[in-house]
């Protein structure tokens, strides 16, 4: 396989052919913020947190889908990107009902981490306070749509790892939501195998184990990495 | 079917025509104004007067002046009548025998007709859209024959290259480059897709072409199929166009029966099948990757490009995606040669473009002009300007992705580069004319409302950003916004434009940004003066804001208006 050499933030980085900019950056220890990306699942390209500036491209490109090519010059941390990332996080906070102090995922939340990382000390936008449902009809899990950021990590984990495709997306625009089966209560979704991979994949406290209270949710992300590693590399290292 | 048979059908069709043809428009605009009944009444009148051997009543496609429909034309003399009602329709027939015609005449020599070109619409209003024989009599499918027997695939692409044809969907990408890329990319199968998901408010060019001359699009697609090596085509047409869908279905069936589509076209080894896929009302499905997802039965959401459809399209195969009007240009280019086409329009934007001129103009309807025609000629000379001697304030081009062009820039030539340079875009061809009474902030809010509604919800900036921008615009319209709100709106506009996944989000801020560029005073006039800290400071605060470089208070800004 041909090796590509590119420059990210002034640092020379090598990438295997077919690797994305994000993968190349990560293996070189360069951090690019993400929300909808999970290594091992298909790339979604929806959160726009991982956008980078590539010299010669007139548009910002998502590093999770853009392949690294020879001679590419990439900037991941310009002032413009920092401002845009902060606005994206602000948009997410204003769009849902995210109250960290009463959330099961407090301190275990990627949205919260992102807010800290981008330096979001307050939200400049008007909060929407949407009316959203909480579905606790499943025996072991629950979903609180108020905390959902529509990253579709649950949809992809369920489809690509478990193979059940219980989760999907319905509606459009501000009415978009993740649904189980034919938009039924989760407890009635017959395709659900109760494997819990959606809980592991969820970046926030939207999908949670029942019985956990504020700040108690352990997503068990390590297990997802273990499964992906086992599937892709046939390595069962615990 | 070979060329001899084709010519035979065409000749027979021309020979059996009655000497006098009464053509009645049966495209959607006129049909909604009762033209089917007009046509029936005229046929009845012909039968009653026993004129069947001399006079024939035919339903034809769009005659362009949609606002004055139903339109009826009597050939060969070319007399045109407008707003024909079923009641007065029979008098057009009796008029042929010297009776008094009660139908309102329409000046066929007016600038609306005389200043227009006829390339894409050459058959529109002439051929019967539901009869393939009528299209064959007008020289139809001759170009496909040439493409099969006289030209190699590479030569077809070369002809398109020399013609300089650019994509008519809005972006203006060179058509031949796209064709050559798909032709070159390896794949077990390849696909030709026609984008007929025309969703811009105020745009109905594609609809008109499909309803008036559906075979032209099929022929263009088949030629494209031959050029790139595809055997399957899809037309993705929106469900809101039932008449276009019906006529396409009829046309595909008729062409298949004559061996002009399907297996072994013109008895050659070339197979090409066309199927229709009907959209279910999502504007975003006009975006190419969302359109392909929808054709494949998936949720109609866009995905990041690259990979482009030309390398990774339908079912992962190289796929050619063009707009209806692009395909409609192809048969003419093959038939008349690339030099003929390149001589129309400007060197960088050759050919013509069909526009839908609507809004505050005298003549609403379809306008086809060579590219490079100044906007003023289209709006003032062809469309007749604002009714009642009103004055134009702005022209909105390109639908929700385009911008508002102020009256002082009306001399801008209409081509891809010139429109982009002034912050608008060609788009698919909608042109909405607004007069002085139009509230530009409200226009921006209308288009933002549209984009907010049509956002697919996949990427954050478009899904949540359009909601916030709409809120801010609503606040400005209702006079509740502060200077900070306007700043925030601009920040969001830039952010959503630069970070959205697909064209919908990337261009959603364009109407707002362009009205901010040319009509900023209308925004500023609406802002609340900076809030004073206590009633006692009212006077001081007003003075301070006037003295600084802040926007002037409402009274002052209002005084600046013409």
Structure explained in plain terms:
The complex is a heterodimer of chains A (238) and B (562). Chain A is α+β, with helices and mostly antiparallel strands and 238 residues long. Chain A folds into two domains: 3-77, Ubiquitin-like (UB roll), CATH 3.10.20.740; 99-233, Alpha-Beta Plaits, CATH 3.30.70. Chain A contains six helices and ten strands; from the N terminus they run E-E-H-E-E-E-H-H-E-E-H-E-E-H-E-H. Chain A has helices spanning 21-27, 79-95, 110-117, 153-162, 197-201, 221-233; strands at residues 3-8, 11-16, 51-54, 61-62, 73-75, 134-135, 141-144, 167-170, 177-180, 207-209. Chain A has a five-stranded mixed sheet with strand order 2-1-5-3-4, covered by helices on one side. Chain A is globular and about 55 Å long. Helices cover 43% and strands 14% of the residues of chain B. Chain B contains 25 helices and 14 strands. Chain B has helices at residues 3-15, 28-31, 35-48, 89-95, 111-114, 132-137, 142-149, 153-163, 175-184, 205-212, 214-228, 242-257, 288-295, 324-336, 338-342, 375-382, 416-421, 440-454, 460-477, 483-499, 503-507, 510-518, 520-524, 538-547, 554-560, and strands at residues 20-25, 55-60, 72-75, 79-82, 104-106, 191-196, 232-238, 273-279, 319-323, 352-359, 365-370, 392-397, 404-406, 430-435. In chain B, the strands form three sheets. A five-stranded mixed sheet of chain B has the order 2-1-3-4-5, covered by helices on one side. In chain B, strand 7, helix 12 and strand 8 (273-279) form a beta-alpha-beta unit. Residues 536-562 of chain B have low confidence and may be disordered. Classes of the chains: A alpha+beta (238), B alpha/beta (562).
Determine the CATH topology of the largest domain in chain A.
Alpha-Beta Plaits
Shape of chain B: globular
Give the largest chain-chain interface (CB within 8 Å).
A-B, 37 and 32 residues
Distance between the termini of chain A: 29 Å
Rg over alpha carbons of chain B? 26 Å
Beta-strand residue fraction of chain B: 5-15%
Question: Poorly predicted ranges of chain B (pLDDT <50, ≥5 residues)?
Answer: 536-562
CATH class of the largest domain in chain B: Alpha Beta
Query: Would you report the number of β strands of chain B?
Result: 14
The CATH top-level class label of the largest domain in chain A = Alpha Beta
């Amino acid at each position: 396989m041909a090796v590509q050499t590119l420059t990210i933030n002034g640092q020379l980085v090598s990438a295997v052919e077919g690797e994305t900019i994000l993968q190349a950056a990560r293996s070189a220890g360069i951090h690019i913020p993400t929300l909808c990306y999970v290594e091992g699942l298909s790339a979604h390209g929806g959160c726009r947190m991982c956008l980078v500036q590539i010299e010669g491209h007139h548009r910002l490109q998502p590093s999770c889908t853009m392949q690294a090519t020879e001679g590419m010059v990439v900037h991941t941390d310009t002032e413009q990107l920092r401002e845009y990332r902060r606005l994206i996080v602000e948009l997410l906070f204003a769009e849902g009902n995210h109250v960290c102090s009463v959330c099961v995922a407090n301190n275990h939340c990627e949205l919260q981490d992102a807010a800290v990382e981008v330096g979001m000390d307050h939200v400049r936008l008007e909060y929407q306070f949407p009316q959203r449902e909480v579905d606790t009809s499943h025996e072991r899990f629950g979903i609180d749509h108020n905390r959902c950021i529509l990253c579709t990590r649950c949809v992809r984990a369920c489809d690509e790892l478990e193979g059940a495709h219980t989760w999907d997306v319905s509606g459009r625009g501000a009415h978009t939501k993740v649904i189980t089966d034919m938009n039924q209560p989760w407890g009635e979704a017959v395709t659900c195998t109760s494997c819990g991979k959606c809980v592991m994949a969820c970046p926030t406290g939207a999908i949670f184990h029942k019985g956990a209270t504020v700040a108690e949710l352990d997503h068990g992300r390590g297990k997802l990495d273990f499964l992906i590693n086992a599937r892709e590399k046939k390595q069962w290292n615990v | 079917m070979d060329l001899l048979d084709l010519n035979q059908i065409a000749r027979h069709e021309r020979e059996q025509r009655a000497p006098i043809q009464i053509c009645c428009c049966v495209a959607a605009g006129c049909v909604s104004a009762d033209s089917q009944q007009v046509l029936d009444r005229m046929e009845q009148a012909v039968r009653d007067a026993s004129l069947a051997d001399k006079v024939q009543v035919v339903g034809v496609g769009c005659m362009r002046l949609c606002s004055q429909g139903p339109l009826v034309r009597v050939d060969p003399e070319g007399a045109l009548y407008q707003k024909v009602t079923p009641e007065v329709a029979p008098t057009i027939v009796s008029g042929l025998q010297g009776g008094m015609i009660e139908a309102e005449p329409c000046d066929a020599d007016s600038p609306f007709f005389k200043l227009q070109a006829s390339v894409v619409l050459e058959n529109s209003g002439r051929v019967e859209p539901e009869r393939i024989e009528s299209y064959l009599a007008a020289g139809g499918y001759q170009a496909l024959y040439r493409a099969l027997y006289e030209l190699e695939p590479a030569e077809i692409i070369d002809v398109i290259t020399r013609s300089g044809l650019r994509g008519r969907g809005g972006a203006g990408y060179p058509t031949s480059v796209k064709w050559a890329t798909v032709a070159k990319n390896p794949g077990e199968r390849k696909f030709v897709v026609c984008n007929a998901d025309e969703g811009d408010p105020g745009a109905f060019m594609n609809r008109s072409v499909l309803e008036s001359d559906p075979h032209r699009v099929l022929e263009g697609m088949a030629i494209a199929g031959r050029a790139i090596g595809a055997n399957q085509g899809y037309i993705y047409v929106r469900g809101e166009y039932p008449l276009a869908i019906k006529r396409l279905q009829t046309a595909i069936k008729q062409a298949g029966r004559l061996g002009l589509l399907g297996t072994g076209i013109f008895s050659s080894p070339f197979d090409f099948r066309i199927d229709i896929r009907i959209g279910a009302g999502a504007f975003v499905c006009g975006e190419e990757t969302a359109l392909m997802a929808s054709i494949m039965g998936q949720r109609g959401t866009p995905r990041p490009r690259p990979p482009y459809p030309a390398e990774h399209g339908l079912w992962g195969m190289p796929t050619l995606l063009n707009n209806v009007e692009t395909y409609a240009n192809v048969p003419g280019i093959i038939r008349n040669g690339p030099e003929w086409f390149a001589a129309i329009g400007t060197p960088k934007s050759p050919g013509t473009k069909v526009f839908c001129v609507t809004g505050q103009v005298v003549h609403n309807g379809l306008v086809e002009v060579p590219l490079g025609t100044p906007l003023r000629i289209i709006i003032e000379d062809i469309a007749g300007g604002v009714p009642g001697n009103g004055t134009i304030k702005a022209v909105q081009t390109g639908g929700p992705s385009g911008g508002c062009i102020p009256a002082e820039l009306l001399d801008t030539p209409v081509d891809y580069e010139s429109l982009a340079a002034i912050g608008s875009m060609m788009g698919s061809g909608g042109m909405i004319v607004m007069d002085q009474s139009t509230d530009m902030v409200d226009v921006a809010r209308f288009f933002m409302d549209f984009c907010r509604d049509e956002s697919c919800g996949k990427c954050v900036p478009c899904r949540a950003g359009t909601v916030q921008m709409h809120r801010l615009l609503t606040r400005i319209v209702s006079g509740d916004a502060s200077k900070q709100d306007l700043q925030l709106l601009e920040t969001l506009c830039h952010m959503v434009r630069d970070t959205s996944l697909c064209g919908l989000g990337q261009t959603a801020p364009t109407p707002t940004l362009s009205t901010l560029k040319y009509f900023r005073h209308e925004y500023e006039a609406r802002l609340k003066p900076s809030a004073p800290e206590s009633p006692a400071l009212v006077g001081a605060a007003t003075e301070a804001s006037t003295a600084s470089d802040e926007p002037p208070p409402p009274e002052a800004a209002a005084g600046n208006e013409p």
